[in-house]
Design brief:
Belongs to the GDA1/CD39 NTPase family. Keywords: ATP-binding, Hydrolase, Membrane, Nucleotide-binding, Transmembrane, Transmembrane helix. One of its GO terms (cellular component) is Golgi apparatus. It is built from 24 helices and 18 strands. The protein is α/β, with parallel strands linked by helices. Among the domains are: about 1-140, ATPase, nucleotide binding domain (Nucleotidyltransferase, domain 5, 2-Layer Sandwich), CATH 3.30.420.40; about 230-300 and about 335-425, no CATH class; about 525-585, no CATH class; about 595-720, no CATH class. A hairpin with a 4-residue loop joins β1 and β2. It is globular, with a radius of gyration of 42 Å.
């Protein structure tokens, strides 16, 4: 086996699905390679740029045709993962498909059917580890997406592993996280100590585990704004523009488009011959007035919405107060693309600052669209910038600026003054920001140390952390409500609490407490399992030992060899159960016989065979009579001892009395069979079914006991009675 664990996550977004592959050292190898500091850090999760693959469109487009999502969409993603992961590690590799905003919008029935089909296809066509469909294939809420992103950012920035190098003051060493997609936006951060106490019920308790098995806990606030992503915000913006324009007008001036650009209401270029080109449908015409664009997009923040739980930021959604002295944010996705793909690609590696960004956006959006097209074709801003990116960036830039500074409240400051020039987006500034630990209020990032900041990385860090064996009393890895122990809504990192270790109680629990705690359904299965084990042991212990065990059990529950009073004394409940006598005893109602002894002798010294089994037994293949039972000394010889004729039922002649006065046993272990007067001497064996004389003696002894049990004395020799 190799030294690496692998994990696969499919990010099922609204526009496409991207597969991410990660690896981390197996725990034994990590311990071997770790130094003292490494033991106190999280597992090192790695990836590679070639391990990611994305296809379009998203899985949500298969809502009405779920049977096609596997072969038409997932197959190439699975094949890509299988081409990276070693074949012998595939069964040990967990796979997750976590869907976001696009699938959230599907009707309930379509969403559930689609997720079920995805899981079924993965289980049938791959050998990936997928034990629980509900956990591994699911739609995650925006809050969870934000929390995973927070983990990824702080993991890459080393806020977790090197807190001393990221001291933001007031004992704070983690970074806030901002994410914006097409449909929604997220925020996640750890409030300062005062706000954490004040808004404790609003926080999530996150628990990770370091290589040495110790737990690390963080209290994080996370929320999402559905409809506040870049695309959904533009849709709301266009609707607001339409409300201010005469309904008969077919041209709508748009300050958020470059000068001279014309697009449809949906933002698509206008083709010749269409209704928009003929003036029969509404079209938007760019005016290139960015400052006006800022004014028009600001109301979309919904800052005036009722706030039921103060304080609120956007749309009346409660968020604890942000202390920007200690809360420093990194932004990904649209925060990076909108600030860097156009405005910084010509000046690679420059960081965001408000003054520089404003200058560049004003210059770009005030340009004539025809000039912008020429620059796009010349790759002035890089090969990733196409016509669609260029025509959307002015609205997105205005929306991003309003969200950051008017909505969230991030201060409008640059990293450095640069002698008052207002232009401070230099590589030296970014390098200094890294040296300072990104201590400015906001920085847009895409990769840190060559690794993309993605919420999928945060999910895998959480899972890898959960696979570390817990130290003593270490709590489970995952997240839930901000209460001690394991809350009812706790989400385990891999969907399984098997590695959760200590459960949070003050006292250590024994294994049986762990086994039966909150799990009544385990009990019947456990009983059946124990019965199977007991039956297997019984069958494997051999015929003689089985006979011994059966005899002891019948005596214990009140079978032959135990008096009725003894039976009631040991198990008083048996007589009260209907039919119990038939279940636990094989003799009819009547006198039961106690075993009479004058000396101690082990039960295994001599065992009497059943009457029925002896009657059915004939001589062996060599003509010698078989001796049933097991004995010590001569009693176990292969040839029967000589008969004395008058021996009482149950023992051979001679040696029974010689062993310290042992009295004869006067009963069969199962029942006393009536004597057969027609027995033939040729069938005589060293058993209780021997000669007619012994059978008559047994019958006479039985009659004497029935007439006067108290005066009965076992007989060893008829002549001496």
């Amino acid at each position: 086996m190799g030294k690496w664990n692998f994990g696969v996550i499919l990010d099922a977004g609204s526009s496409g699905t991207r597969v991410h592959i990660y690896k981390w050292k197996k725990h034994e190898r990590a311990l071997k390679d770790a130094d003292k500091k490494d033991l106190q850090r999280l597992p090192k999760v790695k990836t590679d740029k070639d391990w990611t693959k994305k296809i379009h469109p998203g899985v949500s487009t298969f809502g009405n045709k779920p049977e096609q999502v596997g072969p038409d969409h997932l197959k190439p993603l699975f094949e890509h993962a299988l081409s990276i992961i070693p074949k012998d590690e595939v069964p040990n590799t967990p796979i997750f498909l976590l869907a976001t905003a696009g699938v959230r919008l599907l009707p309930d029935y379509e969403r559930q059917t689609l997720l079920k089909e995805i899981c079924s296809y993965a289980q049938k066509n791959t050998k990936f580890q997928l034990p629980d469909c509900d956990i591994h294939i699911q739609v995650i809420p925006g809050e969870t997406e934000g929390l995973y992103g927070w983990i990824a950012a702080n993991y890459l920035l080393e806020g977790f592993d090197k807190p001393d190098e990221h001291d933001h003051g007031k004992g704070h060493h983690t970074y806030g996280f901002l994410d914006m997609g097409g449909a929604s936006a997220q925020i996640a951060f750890a409030p300062n100590s005062t706000e954490a106490i004040k808004h404790a019920n609003d926080l999530k308790l996150l628990r990770l585990r370091t290589v040495n098995g110790e737990a690390s806990e963080y209290k994080v606030f996370t929320t999402t704004w559905l409809g506040f992503g870049a695309n959904e915000s533009r849709r709301r913006y266009v609707n607001a523009l339409k409300e201010t324009t005469n309904a008969d007008e077919m041209e709508l001036p748009d300050p958020c488009l470059p000068k001279g650009l014309e697009v449809t209401e949906e933002g698509k270029p206008i083709s010749p011959g269409t209704d928009e080109a003929k003036g029969k449908a509404l079209k938007l015409v760019g005016t290139g007035q960015f400052q006006e664009c800022l004014k028009r997009t600001k109301p979309l923040l919904e800052k005036d919405a009722p706030c039921l739980d103060d304080p609120c930021l956007l749309n009346g959604v409660h968020v604890p107060s942000i202390d920007f002295d200690v809360n420093h944010f990194v932004g990904v996705s649209e925060y990076w693309h909108t600030t860097h793909e156009i405005f910084e690609m010509a000046h690679k590696d420059k960081s965001y600052d408000w003054h520089t960004y404003q200058d560049r956006v004003n210059e770009f959006c005030g340009s004539n669209w025809k000039d912008i097209v020429k620059d796009v074709e010349a790759h002035t801003w890089g090969k990733k910038v196409d016509g669609q990116t260029a025509q959307e960036v002015c609205f997105k830039a205005s929306w991003l600026i309003n969200v950051l500074h008017e909505g969230i409240g991030i201060p409008r400051v640059g990293l450095e003054d640069m002698n008052g020039s207002g232009h401070n987006g230099t590589k030296a500034v970014l390098d200094k920001a890294k040296q300072k630990g990104y201590l400015e209020p906001f920085q847009a990032v895409n990769k840190i140390e060559g690794v993309e900041v993605s919420w999928t990385l945060g999910k895998m860090v959480l899972y890898a952390s959960s696979q570390v064996p817990p130290a003593e009393k270490a709590l489970a890895v995952g997240f839930g409500s901000n209460i001690a122990g394991i809350p009812s809504d706790f989400q385990h990192a891999g969907g399984s609490p098997l590695n959760s270790g200590y459960t949070g109680d003050d006292d250590d629990m024994d294994w049986h407490d762990q086994l039966f705690k909150d799990s009544p359904r385990r009990i019947p299965g456990l009983v059946i399992f124990l019965l199977i084990v007991a039956l297997a042991a019984y069958l494997l212990c051999g015929r003689d030992r089985r006979s011994t065990l059966s005899s002891k059990f019948r005596r214990m529950v009140g079978g032959p060899g135990t008096s009725g009073s003894s039976r009631r004394r040991r198990f008083p409940f048996i007589s009260s159960i209907p039919g119990a006598s038939k279940l636990f005893s094989q003799i009819p109602s009547g006198p039961a016989y106690d075993r009479l002894e004058t000396g101690e002798v082990e039960d295994t010294d001599f065992e009497l065979p059943d009457m029925g089994s002896l009657a059915a037994s004939d001589s062996d293949s060599q003509g010698s009579p078989k001796v049933a039972g097991r004995s010590s000394g001569n009693a176990g010889a292969s040839h029967p001892p000589k008969s004395s004729g008058g021996l009482g039922p149950g023992l051979y002649s001679g040696n029974a009395m010689d062993r310290g006065g042992l009295l004869s046993r006067t009963e069969s272990r199962d029942r006393l069979s009536p004597p057969s007067l027609g027995g033939s001497p040729k069938r005589e064996r060293a058993s209780r079914t021997g000669s007619p004389t012994r059978k008559m003696n047994a019958l006479a002894a039985l009659h004497r006991f029935q007439e006067s049990p108290s005066s009965y004395i076992p007989v060893t020799n008829e002549k001496n009675s």
